[in-house]
Amino acid sequence: MIASEAEKGGEGLPVVVIGAGPTGLAAAAHLAERGLDFVVLEAGDSAGSAIGQWGHVRLFSPWRYNTDAAARRLLEPTGWKLPDADTLPTGADLVRDYLVPLAQVPALAGRVRTGQRVIAVTRLGLDVTRSIGRETRPLLVRAAGPDGAVTDIAARAVIDASGTWGRTNPLGHSGLPAPGEDQAAPHLTGPLPDVLGRDRDRFAGRHTLVVGMGHSAAGTLLALAELAKTEPGTRVTWTVRGTSVARLYGGGDADGLPARGAIGTRLKAAVESGRIELIRGFTITRLDAPGTGAESGPVQVVGRTPDGELAVAADVVVAATGFRPDLDMLREIRVDLDRATEAPARLAPLIDPNFHSCGTVPPHGERELAHPEPGFYMAGMKSYGRAPTFLMATGYEQVRSIVAALAGDREAADDVQLDLPETGVCSSDLLTEDLLPGDTGQDAGCGTSCGTEPAATPTVQADSTVGGCCGGPAPEPISIGVGAPDGGLGFATGVVHGYSGDAERGDA
């Protein structure tokens, strides 16, 4: 659909939302409430397709913090009811009981187009170098269907809520793939394999190396340790680049979210008992693949350690190394991104993982997410770039603010609020025996991989007196911050020091 001459300013054209995950469908719900035309383009074959790939994982946050207000207002007339507010859903629960029904409500049905992978965003008739007349042209979104057919859609605005799933950071150091990483692909898995379910045969009786120090790594390690109890020959090795794992062990029983605290406690016990072999200070320098196929023998993962070079022979390598955004699709529009985090420049200082875990994040909205390209926004997980600290509730407030601005309601767009537990998210006043005074040792691991407990584990009910990453139940939710974030208002959401805090910790 290419704009006519009369539509070149964008009038009469839809807002294109990229991605039918939680943030994208929340954007659609707010657009529908505002009476704005829109279309949602989803690369997968259904709403929440990316989340479905880690459907076996249980979130840390209960249902009450996982749905958007406008979405609920559209769902409730259809007979939909919020699942038990204090239950922790799995990814599959979130898709089945929230995202799929939301995509089917009358206001959204027919506007969510699946199997449409966006490959580029640009200005109609102009590349990124052209300035004259730029503001008079609509945006143009190019998508490819399952059969490779290409469709161009002219848009008055674009909300890129495509997330970061599927674009993992490499195993090598310095942000680069390790030599041999491509050749070792048959031996590698993504960050959240279903060890106790769908992928069981791949791990049973084999040696698995898990690389990474987030909650994705922790959940996989615990699942592998459980598998080893019933599958002889199953071995588990865990490598981290740093010398301390205290921030993953976290606050234990004192953690603001019991589900997350239990993971740290259990992981520490598994390492100390020898069920998981931990190798610290391991920087991967190359992978030596044995040949073609995963059955041809183990891959040699070679790394540099304080004691010299070390090779680990593994049948399977789990790359739980975090994610980075797909920026290739944005080469022909003008975006202002922070050089370090690849987040919008005005948002980046608020979420910088060098100094924050789920940091002291002030409420933020349309003004912080805008780019030099009028009408283009990144929202949700993708707006955080490489920072691993995204909160689902934050994404909902982001798109509410953006849609209000598109509707011309500047007052609502600037009235940015977050309803969170009174104790905040990822409470920053915890202390464990592994940490120095003043350091909390938590690494939130929020966002789409916010929970890492296998679905086989019974649902954990969060303590009603505390909050936690990605939300947590509390009897008195409060609104935190009103207006622009430069007023200094925010909420404590984790380690104040972020990555830099690693240097302050003793061995753990």
Automatic annotation (TrEMBL):
One example GO MF annotation: flavin adenine dinucleotide binding
UniProt keyword annotation of Oxidoreductase present: yes
Record-linked SUPFAM superfamilies: FAD/NAD(P)-binding domain (SSF51905)
Keywords: Oxidoreductase
Domain FAD dependent oxidoreductase: 15-59
Pfam families reported in the protein's UniProt record: DAO
Protein name as annotated: FAD-binding protein
Organism per entry: Actinomadura harenae
